[in-house]
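Worked example

This section walks through a single chain of length 197. The input is the sequence exactly as stored; nothing has been trimmed or padded.
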Amino acid sequence: MTKKIYLLLFTILSCLISISCSKDNGTDSLIEEKLDSMTGKEIIRELLIKNDNDINQLARIFDCSPSSLIRILNGETINTPEAEKQFKNVLNQTLIAKEKTLDEIDPSKQSWIFKSRFFIENHYIWLIIMLCIIFLLVSIELVEINFFSIIAIAFSIAILLAILIYIIDMAFIWFTDPPLLVDKFKNTYDPIWEILK
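Given that input, the structure is written out below as tokens.
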């Protein structure tokens, strides 16, 4: 009798565990239905919320005119089916699947200058530590002064060099910042992205 009870409990627990561990397809299907029902205008709104209303960034990502996106957003025109596919693809990558961010998709932010700035801003302490160690090793070999004086000199030189590297990097970014998009389709409609109502 007890074996039957244990077998029944084991079966029930096994079923509960398998049901609770299975992937929730209901949520995925709801997200897909919501994405399919969204219009291009709604998708652009969601993407603008995500990137702090930077219409130029979206225009660079989609390789289109900012005025085309603005006309679609304002309801003056309707997006083409191909444009809607691209809008949904980017929305899926950035907001739903969270595979990438809009900055990672933005072609202007793929240059080495922006990547070096990211490294310096996020890992500057390691840069200072590496420079300190290098100057410490070099100064111990060359100079016969008090050990604490050498550490102080090496640390201050390393900080000054890190600041100098940061200033040079910021100057590169300032001089090579991507210009605003020249809006070639300001007064005309782009048939690749929009259809007249």
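What to look for: The beta strands are 77-79, 194-196.
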